[in-house]
Amino acid sequence: MIQFSAVAKRYPGGQEALRGVSFEVAAGEMVAVTGRSGAGKSTLLKLAAGIERASAGSVVIQGQNLAALRETALAVLRRRIGFVFQDHKLLFDRNAFENVALPLRIGGFARDETGRRVRAALDKVGLLAREKALPVALSGGEQQRLCIARAIVNRPSILIADEPTGNLDAEYARSIVELFGSFHQVGVTVLLSAHDEASLAQLGCRRVALVAGAIAPEVAP
Fold first, then answer.
1. CB-CB contact of 7 with 62 (8 Å)
2. Residue 147's closest CA among 99, 179, 200, 113?
3. Separation of alpha carbons 130 and 55, rounded Å
4. Helices (H), the chain
5. How many CB atoms within 10 Å of residue 201?
6. Order of strands, edge to edge, in the sheet holding 16-25?
7. Angle formed by the axes of helices 96-106 and 111-124, to 10°?
8. Residues with Cβ < 8 Å from 139, sequence gap 6 or more?
């Protein structure tokens, strides 16, 4: 499903975010990427989602080598991947419904189908009653749930999340972890980054540890 082979990522100025990274995530598996701030977690997730391209090595998603894909084909592949950004990237001038509907509007979905999918996604994350609320009226945990709803509205086969429990209190963090567990239980492939031990223990999944941009020996759940 997700295969990294000797992947490196260098940014302008010579910063090396990843080096020699090789690992796989099987279809339907849930894997947590761990590591200190600056270890390369966010970069790895963006490469797995096709948001960025590797400087060396290969990233293969669902049998497709991302380096060989043109931008149009890469855009089509991205629609099968849900991504939860660490900094939310919500549109604060649009309500919850419109934030979740955005990927469907870009994809050209009909109005009725968009409405059904958006409300199903909001219901899944417990925000159906807040569909008309602006993001500023939502708590931090609710904003995170809104981001998850937007990520799953396309019904992706792969769900990727960058520190989804970051900056949340323990109760909200537990509920977010439970959400990802529910997606995994119905066969969605889940790749996420996490740093707090409580969330990692609750996930109970395989871990891939990054140290200074390189893979450390894997830790059993």
1. no
2. 99
3. 42
4. 41-48, 71-78, 96-106, 111-124, 140-152, 170-185, 197-203
5. 10
6. 16-25, 2-10, 56-61, 64-65
7. 130
8. 172
Return d(Cα 159, Cα 168) in angstroms, integer.
20
Amino acid at 13: G
Alpha-carbon torsion (183, 187, 192, 197), positive or negative: positive
CA atoms within 13 A on the CB side of 154: 23
Each residue of 41-96: pLDDT tens digit?
999 999 999 999 999 999 999 999 999 999 999 988 998 999 999 888 899 999 99
Q: Taking a C-beta distance cutoff of 8 angstroms, is the pair 81, 49 a contact?
A: yes
Alpha-carbon radius of gyration of the chain: 17
For the full predicted model, state whether its pTM sits above 0.90. Answer: yes
| pLDDT given at position 219 | 53
Where residue 215 falls among pLDDT bands split at 50, 70, 90? very high
- In the chain, helix, strand, coil percent, each to 5? 40, 25, 35
